[in-house]
Amino acid sequence: MSSLPECQTLLLELHGGVLHITLNRPDSRNAMSLQMVSELRAVLTAVRDDRGVRALVLSGAGGHFCAGGDIKDMAGARAQGADAYRELNRAFGALLQEAQHAPQVLITVLQGAVLGGGFGLACVSDIAMADHQAQFGLPETSLGLLPAQIAPFVVQRIGLTETRRLALTAARFDGHQARRLGLVHFVEQDPQALAERLDEVLDHVLYCAPEANAATKKLLLASAGQPSNELLDEAAQWFSEAVTGAEGIEGTLAFVQKRKPRWAL
Questions:
Q1: What is the rounded distance in angstroms from the CA atom of residue 38 to the CA atom of residue 14?
Q2: What is the DSSP code (8-state) at residue 142?
Q3: Which helix (H) or strand (E) holds 186?
């Protein structure tokens, strides 16, 4: 069995062939810090070749899944210049690629905030289930930024037409609409129903042979086409330019100051 890395931002619980990974920064609604990205990538690497780990269940502590990127990390990167922004952004894209291609079945349990980076993680899961009151959205453009690493995975998940609407309006929507969009597979009314649904899904997953599931997942992803390294590299550069530009500076400052940005009518 794999030796799991020590983590400060994640809670890990392995039993019955299922690794439960809980994003554990509840004070920030589990915002995706660079440390969390690094720890998630380390966990995925640790279990990649272990067929004793059959499924990965990703959820969030404190009633939220993930509220997106950590604005404090962005503030830290600002002092280091544009290259730091590009590297910070691209590291998250690498996480999405690695999660997408994990040989295990990746299940996301979505409650509360499912925004930005959290939205991206939902899009790379094999099976997604949500509370009906979960709040989904791509808020980046309302901050003067762009969903640089996330967008290709969202397009792949729900299609170009709906992604354009959501990304260009920063609209919020609930679990029921997420189900209609094809973002999630199951919507439940309360945490107990979510837990029961998860147990049911895991029963089905564990009925399938692990090597066959890993090979089938690889085949299905290859059949659908993939967001490319080249595109994600270019998107990280665009993100860096946006976050260091006038709109990015104003948008992130307005977020921290809890006010509308200048362009918001």
A1: 20
A2: G
A3: strand 186-188
The domain limits of the chain are 1-189+209-265
Contacts with 85 (C-beta within 8 Å, 6 or more apart), sequence order: 74, 77, 78, 239, 240, 243, 244
For 13-54, how does the pLDDT look when each residue is reduced to its tens digit (9 = 90+)? 999 999 999 999 999 999 999 999 999 999 999 999 999 999
144 with 250: CB under 8 angstroms? yes
CATH of the structural domain 1-189+209-265, one choice from 3.90.226.10, 3.30.390.30, 3.30.230.70, 2.40.30.60: 3.90.226.10
pLDDT in tens, 161-178: 999 999 999 999 999 999
Predicted TM-score (pTM) of the model is 0.91
DSSP conformation class of 57: E
